[in-house]
Amino acid sequence: MKKLFLLILLVLSITTTVQLPSTYAHSNNSEGYSMIEVTDHNINYELKVDLAELGHAMNQELDNQQLFNTKIVQNYINSRIELYADSIKLEGTIERSGVETISNKQFAVMNLTYELGDKPQKLVLNYNMFLDDSDPSHANYATVTFDGEQQEEVLTFESRELEIGEMNFVQNVLQFLLLGLKHIFTGYDHILFVISLLFGIKTIRNTFTLVTAFTIAHSITLALATLDIVHLPSSFVEAAIALSIIYVALINIFNPDSKHQPWLAFAFGLVHGFGFAGILSEMRLDASHLATSLISFNIGIEIGQLVIVAIVFPILLWLKTLTFKPSKWVIPGASVAILAFGFLWFIERAF
């Protein structure tokens, strides 16, 4: 019994003399400081947080050298600090970093830059450093300088968001209209699907019914997904979009004289609508402009679709008027190429 007592004393004496690494030197009530300045072309963000707490939250010991050389810290910050300029989410890049002593504590100092296309009218900061990871009592003292206006806020577990500025109606409409146009013209899978549908047209009326059915369908699911009424995994949606391309391409190859039905455009339009909503899910839509943003984005997509139809449809009609009927091999040949892209996208997205 005496030996056991002596052993316990020995263990206690060792644990009281050995210091834990700073990685695990968790300190409640840690503090942070944010100095944010919005300029015409970028946002400069000086972030100061307790160095030991940062290491504890990331489960690794950090020093000055690591702050300079690793991108792990940058990725961690971008995953915990969400910065939106006119609803568009930005990614920060650490330009400089170091260690500073404040009130006898070491603070990690990171100077981040967020690139801007144009100077925004509204800025939203969503701050989650440490709050869900290691220290719910963490507080960050934020100062934002934006368009001659300065706003200060204490960001805590209960109050994590800071908003400054206001986006006007006209800018909101133009922004989401152009975003919809950009999305359709850079969404090559959507473009190939629309072209595949056009391969099966017979008349102008048939074109109108197909485009209308596709538009109504994707408008429905775009709204449902954006409003978070219906949610599907993005991997499933993207793979299903690839399958829609494969299906229509196979019809065009093995039955090039078939007439695509509106129900086909409507059914696959429902799937493509979830794909269109993907970009909006990454944004922070202003509640006061939600309907306007959604409608403007959808109109942008429709304008893009009409441009594609206006280019492809006359070419197809012209090919069908030629005496040697090149459409007999052009449509199946192009459909084989589209089929190959569809298969590649499906394999990439499904596996």
Automatic annotation (TrEMBL):
Keywords, comma-separated and alphabetical: Membrane, Signal, Transmembrane, Transmembrane helix
Q: Which residues form the signal peptide?
A: 1-27
Transmembrane segments annotated in the record for this chain: 176-201, 208-230, 236-254, 263-281, 293-317, 329-347
User: Does the keyword Signal belong to this entry?
Assistant: yes
The answer, when asked if ATP-binding is one of the entry's keywords, is no
Q: Which InterPro entries match?
A: Put_HupE_UreJ
Query: What is the protein name for this chain?
Result: HupE/UreJ family protein
What is the scientific name of the source organism? Ureibacillus aquaedulcis
